[in-house]
Design brief:
The protein has 16 helices and 34 strands. By secondary structure, it is an alpha+beta fold. The protein has three domains: 107 residues, Rossmann fold, CATH 3.40.50; 202 residues, Bira Bifunctional Protein, Domain 2 (BirA Bifunctional Protein, domain 2), CATH 3.30.930.10; 128 residues, YbaK protein, CATH 3.90.960.10. It binds one RNA strand through β9, β24, β27, α14 and α15.
Amino acid sequence: MTNDTAKNIIRMSELYTPTLKEDPADAEIASHRLLMRSGMIRKAASGVYTFLPLGKKVLAKIETIVREEMDGIGAQEVMMPALQPAELWFESGRWDDYGPELMRLEDRHGRGFCLGPTHEELITSLVRNELRSYKDLPLSLYQIQVKFRDEIRPRFGLLRGREFIMKDAYSFHPNQASLQETYNDMSAAYGRMCDRMGLTWRAVEADSGQIGGNTSCEFMALAEAGEAELVYCSCGYAANTEAGEGTAQLEEYQAQKGLEKIATPGIGAISDLAKHLDTPESSTVKAMAGRGTDGVLTVFLVPGSHELNLIKAGRMVDGFELLNDDAIEAAGLSKGSMGPVGLPPNTRLVAEKSLRTIESWVVGANEEGHHYVGAKSDVDFTVDEWADITVVKEGDLCAQCGSILEGARGIEVSQVFQLGDKYSKSMGATFSAEDGSEQHFLMGCYGVGVTRSMAAIVEQYNDDKGIIWPISVAPAHVCVIPLDVEEGEVFSTAQKLAADFAALGFEVALDDRDERAGVKFNDADLIGWPIQVVVGKRGLGEAKVEMKVRKSGEKKDVALDAIADVLRDTL
RNA sequence: CGGGACGUGGCGCAGUUUGGUAGCGCGCUUGCUUUGGGAGCAAGAUGUCGCAGGUUCAAAUCCUGUCGUCCCGACCA
């Protein structure tokens, strides 16, 4: 055994891994509870965590996977500052647009800075001076670095922190074809990363949010604890519900001869209305009123079973905001019984396209305590525009193939965007094209939540005993557990096995603590080593050790001289 | 920011209703015994009861303010 090999063995007697018997009071979801209990992380403040030695090892594993995939598609690693001058954010306009989520501060001279929540500004300012010719394009740069976002509500441990580690990559292109090519390479690399981390995932169509741009795709680790909802279809279509499109399956309210006003005293909510009429919510129509920056009153009609998608509404009406209760009244409308019949003049009426599949609508009568049944489009009211404006949901029909969409929850572990020229234009980043003209770069940006991925993996790999790390990200491959650490055959055999495993290239932990068997077994299960090799007097009498596979729980006795081979075959 | 809950040794909690000067389990220290799934016995150490005011002879307990934390919502890579 060389000294180098010995140094690579994680000695539990010296390792700082304070495991907890009980769940911490402030941790709810599995990843938060188990990462805390296994001594991998500790909280410093709400949404701010320290990574202890084992947690740090897992992070390093994830980072290695990310690096290998980035390097593999020709992206180059850089390191940008977390502390960024405010001027760059003035240039892009995001000093104002980003809102309170941006961590702002001043230096002693009163100059403005922020702690970077993302790095489009920084990287654009970097390359605009040095990347001058189309001959140098395309170029992809990335970094793995800490980010800061002053989240409204940090939660779920590592899933939504105020400080977190992200891999962010940025690409620069002379034209759309080049951007598309890199975007495709990145997407493929992201899929491979998820696979290598062992995640069960789906790539979904996404909204591009605050980052800007148009084409965007999110990589979701499927998990009940996830904050995102998504729909997917057997044809391959998948989308975040905030971005996706589907056709709502609606039901016709009992055939009506014509418009009929009915009294619905005290009924405001769709659920109450549906109950009152003994009809499904999907046979009713809900109206939502708001105004954009142009001040025109706009009423959106969506099926009672569905929600209005405010992102889509905002895309149709610039600066759209829903009216509050006072404004509803001031506009001459009645909250709880709003509808398309008898709206104030000059109201813009937009209806969800799925509503075309039903003829006779149940709608509000714009009069408190009253609704209409049997309202018909083009007879009783006129829709100005039919559009996709609902939040898609499970059970809707796929916009691409017409099959029924399935629903799931997911953790957004990464996202790819095509930014276009949003930042190169606002920040004046240009290059000389082949024909000699000055053109704005087309950009892409690509993020991976490294710490979030770690939590997502635990969400998918745990049981009532603890974490079950996939081998690719485990803090070590195998833990050798001697049941006696006094001088003697048991301990010396365990030490030799650990050294042998390490010499063969395995990552090894040795639980050389003077603890009882139960403590070691429970900690090993909690920490989640993929393989445990137990060395005890009982087995050693027959020259055997016990190997336990954490994932399956399978235990078997293995002859000492065969254990290395069995280990290799199992890993 | 709205709604809800909670801050008591390192961790998990009781005690607060009805004020009387702080307790349990785990962990920690020492010793003996034990040793294949979170050991037993014995002896110990550790608390400005989040913080600041106030009421009272007396405050963990009542009142006011404040800070922190978690959950739901709005928001968001």
